[in-house]
Amino acid sequence: MRASRIGRAVLANTAAQIPGPDLWNSRIQSARQTGMDGVAAAAAERWFTKVFRDTNPEKVERVLEMVRTTPLNGYLAACAAGRDMDQREAIRSIGNKVLVIAGRHDLSTPPGMGALVANSIEGAKFITLEASHISNIEDEANFTKAAVAFLTAPGITAVTPRLRRKAPAKKAHTKKAAAKKSSRTKTSSRKQVSAKKSPVKKTSGQKLKTKGLPKKSAAKKTMIGTGSKKRPGKKTGASKKASGRRKS
Q: What is the largest CA-CA distance in the chain?
């Protein structure tokens, strides 16, 4: 997580490292054998004091029900991550304002582990509550009071997370618009080219028609010519009759 996204942080009932890989391996093996019901039963003793379990069974049961409904594979992966985790050196680079809260009766992450986290972060504050591992439920009032007082204390400026710019999306939109414009210009140019070519086709048709006209006129001339030839024939027939009369 980026440090620029966090102004102040509350680290509750945690540790930079929980030593003992055998401890985690035994939890993994036990979870595979008993399932999440067995995990919930074992967690109740580590996460809440006996006094709180006896006086607030409904609150404890609400937490245990969440454990029972947790997927087994997810719990096994979390155990493996806790086994391999070591952030004792990495937390020294934290420059944010930090409040570390520990439970005085916490068996999972004892107060000494919380104190180590607070001492590794410059300017971190450290407090302990009369609770076990789930201190925000067992000592709800004091936990909420300490967290709210720290988060709302004056003189601590919260870092506003930076919003992601949507410039790439706009560029993509302009690219699509440019592509649409280019396609429109292409189609319009094609229409203009076709419009320019169409008169050429018409003129060619007109030329063909004009070429056909001389042929028709020539045919008419031939008809006229043949007609003129037939007329002298008729005249010769009349002349024959006239000559015959003369002879008689």
A: 170
d(CA 121, CA 99): 10
48 three-class SS: coil
Fold of 3-151: Rossmann fold (3.40.50)
pLDDT digits (tens, 9 = 90+) for 25-75: 999 999 999 999 999 999 999 999 999 999 999 999 999 999 999 999 999
Domain ranges in the chain are 3-151
Residue among 67, 72, 193, 190 nearest 133 (CA) = 67
Residue 46: predicted pLDDT: 94
Instruction: Report the chain's mean pLDDT, rounded to a whole number.
Output: 78
Positive or negative torsion for Cα 95, 120, 107, 72: positive
Predicted TM-score of the model (pTM): 0.62
Q: What is the C-alpha radius of gyration for the chain, rounded to an integer number of angstroms?
A: 52
With H, G, I as helix, E, B as strand and everything else as coil, classify residue 133: coil
Backbone dihedral angles phi then psi of residue 95, each to the nearest 5 degrees: -110, 5
Sign of CA dihedral 5, 119, 105, 55: negative
Nearest residue to 147 via CA among 52, 8, 16: 8
Regions of the chain short of the pLDDT cut 50: 158-163, 193, 195, 198-248
